[in-house]
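README, section 4: Worked example with a bound small molecule

Sections 1 through 3 covered apo chains. Here we extend the same pipeline to holo records, where the ligand is supplied as SMILES alongside the sequence. The molecule in this example is calcium ion. Nothing else about the input changes; the structure line simply encodes the ligand pose together with the chain.
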Amino acid sequence: MVLRLISVVILAVIVARVCNFVYVSGFHKPIYKQYPGPCRLVPGVDRGSEDITVSSEGLAFISSGLSSPRFVHDPQRHAEGVKGRILLFDYSHPEKNTTELSIVGNFSNNHFDPHGISLYQNPVTGETRLFVVNHLPDFKDSVEIFRFMEKEKSLYHLKTCQGEHMYSLNDVLAVGPESFYFTNDMFFTQGILRILELYAGMAWGGVGLYDVTDKILLQGMMFANGINMSPDGRLVYVAEFVRNTVNIYKRVPEDNSLIIQKVIYTYTSVDNIEVDKKTGDIWLGCHPALYTTIKHMENTTKPAASQVLRLRLSSNSDPYDKAELRQFFMDGGELISASSVASMYNDAMLIGSVTDRMVYCEIKTI
Ligand SMILES: [Ca+2]
Ligand SMILES: [Ca+2]
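The generated complex, written as structure tokens:
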């Protein structure tokens, strides 16, 4: 009797997990084409623009060439030997498209597989630093810190940060010249155990902090993905990709700890998060039909659905008691596949993709 009861409970848990993953995969989701205004491809970007972040002056930094077999399973793409690059796009001169930033200093370009990025603009010195998640061989990860040299159009390598708690990095959020939050999307880094962790819906991802040494701050997340913060630094936003949520945390300035305030259900798989520094609006690059993204990662010539949402928090009394979600972009992969990020500056937007192209849109519908 007891054995039978245990078997029923185990079966029920497995069925619930399978049903949840089928739901999250988005087979039932219709994809209606929607553009916020005129949109065009940006020439020179055809091997990914996984993360984009923009400076106060409207310079967008783009990470291109993500190839880690942890995410990209397309043998053709691996055979091509895609090169990791950081590109620059000036919102004041969109007609100039992108420029590749050269990397100088003591850093080997042979092991550059860039993923999530974040900027730190020092309010005292005016220095701009770019923090880049880098996937190294043998499934090891690091965060590379560069100084941006605007005149030379280059990145000067300053430091490689690694730690025992930085094992499955996805995104980074700079909070000081050498300190940052990071997300570990999952616990396992490779192979069948990572696949099982994903499909069984295990909540083993989380958020950590690097400040001289590294430590874990938050656990229990289902694929922790993008991380960013409000312009005043009081709130931190984290995307739980498989749970379909954006979590809002209060940041304690004394020790950088994070206290959960609200969970926003998005009903789509949110990848990276960008924040408009002027308005505080939160821009989400999303995978609305996740099964198409999974197929696209196995064969990058197959189209995958793309979506951009804006999350606006507002209230007279409390900055997070009202949340409005609005869609600005949706595409079945005709223009761009597997959108992972949307960056906004004035009335224009760049949409990036894990392995595909990059799109520039003028916003006419706000
Ligand atoms: Ca980022
Ligand atoms: Ca990401």
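What to look for in the output: The chain has one domain: 22-362. The two ends are 62 Å apart (CA to CA).

Section 5 describes how to batch many such records.
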